[in-house]
Amino acid sequence: MELFFNPFDNLVCILLGISLTVWFTLLLVFIIVPAIFGVSFGIRRLYMKTLLKLFEWATLRIERGAKENNHHLHKPYSNAIIAKEPTSLEEEIKEIRRSGSNKDLDSASEFEMSDIFYFARRGVASIMDDEVTKRFSAEELESWNLLTRSNNNFHYISLRLTVLWGLGLVFRYSFLLPLRVTLAFTGVGLLVFLTCVIGLLPNGRLKNFLSEKVHLMCYRICVRALTAIITYHDSENKPKKGGICVANHTSPIDVIILASDGCYAMVGQIHGGLMGVIQRSMVKACPHIWFERSEVKDRHLVAKRLSDHLEVKTKLPILIFPEGTCINNTSVMMFKKGSFEIGGTVYPVAIKYDPRFGDAFWNSSKFGMVSYLLRMMSSWAIVCSVWYLPPMSREEDEDAVQFANRVKAAIARQGGLVDLLWDGGLKRGKVKETFKEEQQKLYSKMLVGTQEDRSRS
Amino acid sequence: MGSRASTLLREEEIEEIKKETGFSHSQITRLYSRFTSLDKGENGTLSREDFQRIPELAINPLGDRIINAFFPEGEDQVNFRGFMRTLAHFRPIEDNEKSKNAAVSEPLNSRTNKLLFAFQLYDLDRDDKISRDELLQVLRMMVGVNISDEQLGSIADRTIQEADTNGDNSISFNEFIKVLEKVDVEQKMSIRFLH
Predict the structure, then answer these.
(1) Are B159 and A111 within 8 A, CB to CB?
(2) Which of A290, A423, B92, B188 has a 20 to 30 Å separation from A300 between CA atoms?
(3) Which intervals hold domain EF-hand (chain B) (predicted)?
(4) Do A99 and B188 touch (CB under 8 A)?
C-alpha cells in the first residue's frame, strides 16, 4: 500500500511545485512589474472589448428567446416611471381652484376643499417613484452581463446562454478570483511592510520621494487586483500640493482608483482590525489625517486639523468625499459644507463607473466589507472613467454652501449624474422636520395672504 | 446567488391585477419592482415605516393621511394587491373608458372613486362624514403653526357653511361631490405614466 502512494505523492508534489512557480512568474512578469513602473500591456482593455461583444450577444439571445416564448421582458426602470410636474405649490393649487371656481378670479377664496388634491397627488406620485430612495441601491442594467446578481430575466434563457454563463462562472471563480486575492494580499502586504520601513527614515526629501513611489506602486497592484480598467481624462488638472481634492463617492474603491494616479493625504476615521493596521503604517511614511472616533463629532477640531495641513504648502493634497456616504453612482447628493469652509483651492474630480462589468456601489446595509470585496473580485472587471475638473475657489460673495453646490453641479455635469439637493444621510436617517414646515408655510401664505387682501378691500 | 426578484410575480396574478386596476402589464411589473424595493423587511408586505422612509412623502404635510389610505381599518401591513388597488385611484381616465356602460362595476379610477379617496383623507374616523373637528385637524396638518386657532376655526366654519345643505353641521360624501362638481378631478387626481 505504501509503495502505491509514494510515487503518486511525489508526482503531485512536483506538479504542484511547478504550477505554483509558473503561476507566480506569470504574475510577476505580467502584473507586478508593470505595476511598479506604471506601464500596461493592454491585456485588460482587450479583455474588456471581448466582454462587451459577449454581453451584446447575450442580450440579443434573451430578447429573441423572450419573443419566441411570448413572454414579457422585465425592462428596468432606469428612467422615471411617471411624469413629474415641475410646478410649484402655489401655481398648482391656483390651477385647481381656477378649474372649479364659479366665482370670478378677483374674490379668490382662502381655502377650497379641492386644495387637498395637490398634496394627495404629490404624495402618491412620490410613493410610485421618488428621487432619493433609488439612489441607495444598485443601478439596474439595460442588458444582461452574465452575472446572476444583476439579472431579472433569468427564466428566459437558451441552452447556449446557460452554458456560457456556466463557463463564465467557472472562469471568474476558479481563475480570476484566486488571482485577484493573491494580488490583493501582495499589494496590501507590500504597502504595510514598505511604509513601515520608510517610516524609519528621517523626515526629508528622500523619505517623501520613496513614500510616493511606494504608495503608487502598491495602489497599482491593488488596481490590478480588482481588474480595474480606468480612463483618466484631463490629467493636466490633477490636484496639486496644498489643495483639496473633492470627488463623488460610490465605494471604498474610489480611494484606490484616485490614489493609483497621484499621491493624496487621506482623511478618515481610524478603524480597528486590518484596516487599522494599514492606516497606522501608512501614516508612518506620509502624513495622512486620521481621526479617532470621538474626534469625528467635533467639527472645529476636524476643520482645524485640515486647515493646519493645508497651511504647509508642501504637503500632499487632501482627498475628501463630501457626500459622506456611498451613493449608487447615478446621482450626486448634497455636499457637506465642512470641506468647503477651510479655504484652499478645490480640485473637483468626477468618477463614473460602467455598471456593465461589475457594480461597484457598496450597499453597506446589505453587504459587509468582506462580502463586498469578494463580490468585486468575482465580477468581470471594474471599469470607470475619472475626470479631473479645473480647480475652483470660493468667490467673494458666496458662502460655503453655495460654493459646495457649485462644485457639486460641475461634478454632476461632467460625470453625467443627476444633481440632487437631498442629503446622502437619508440612507440611514430621517429627513428634517424643517422641510415639512417649509411646505406648510408656503401653503399658509396662500390662505392668509388672501385674507389680508380681503380685509383691505 | 439571489436574484433580486426572487418572488417574481406570476402571470395569473398580473392578469388579475390588470382586470381589477386597469394598469398595463409593464406598469404592473414596474410598480412591483418599486414595491419590492420599498419592502425592506422582504416579507411581501409594506408597513407604515416603509412608506415613511420616502423623504418626499415624509415632508408632505398630509403624508401620514396618505399612508393611512393604504391600510384598511385596523391593519398594519399592506400586500401588493392592496398597494395596487390604492394606486389605481390615480390612474388617468382613458377616453374609451368614459363611454363604458354602467353594467361593468365602477373602475377604481372613476371620478367618483377619486373624489372618495380625497374625501377619506379628510374623514379621520371613517364615519362617512367630515365633522368640523376633522376639518380643523386636517387644516392644522396642512398649515402647521403658521395660522392661529381662531383664523383656522373661521375658515372651517365658512367651508362647512358653504358645503352643508342638510344642516347637520358636517359634510357628507354627496355634499362633498356637489361642492367639487366643477373641478377637473380627472386631471388633478391622476398621475401620468411614461410608458
Answers:
(1) yes
(2) A423
(3) 26-61, 110-145, 151-186
(4) yes
SS3 per-residue string spanning B17-28: HHHHHCCCHHHH
Closest CA to A147 of A212, A71, A58: A58
pLDDT of B84 strictly over 90: yes
Residue B172 near residue B166, CB atoms below 8 Å: yes
Whole-angstrom distance, CA of residue A384 vs CA of residue A329: 11
B118: pLDDT confidence band, cut at 50, 70 and 90?
A: very high
Dihedral sign computed on CA atoms, order A276, A277, A280, A281: negative
Mutate to test the interface with B, among A73, A78, A95, A117 (most CBs of B within 10 A): A117
User: C-alpha grid cell for residue A155?
Assistant: 427564466
**Residue B121: C-alpha distances to residues A120, B65, B130 (Å):** 8, 6, 10
Using DSSP, state whether B78 is helix, strand or coil: strand
Its pTM stands at: 0.79
Q: Is A382 helix (H, G, I), strand (E, B) or coil?
A: strand
- Here the ipTM equals 0.91
Please list every residue in chain A whose beta carbon sits closer than 8 Å to the beta carbon of residue B29.
72, 74
Q: 3-state DSSP call for residue B129?
A: strand
Of A129, A426, A431, the CB nearest to B34: A129
A242-271 per-position pLDDT tens digit: 889 999 999 888 988 998 888 888 888 787
B29 CA to chain A: closest CA distance, Å? 7
Q: Identify the three-state secondary structure at position A329.
A: coil
Cross-chain CB nearest to A123 (options B26, B34, B63): B63
Whole-number Å distance between alpha carbons of B67 and B50: 10
Q: Classify burial at B76, counting beta carbons within 10 Å of its beta carbon; exposed 0-12, middle 13-18, buried 19 or more.
A: exposed
Alpha helices, DSSP H only, in A226-334? 253-259, 273-285, 293-296, 299-311
Q: Beta strands of A146-288 (E only): which ranges?
A: 228-233, 244-247, 265-269
CA distance B86 to A403: 43
Per-residue cell: A371: 462580502
- The DSSP string of A82-145 is BPPP---HHHHHHHHHHHH--S-TTS--S--GGGHHHHHHHHHHHHH--SSGGGGSPPPPSS--
Distance between CA B101 and CA B105 in Å, rounded? 9
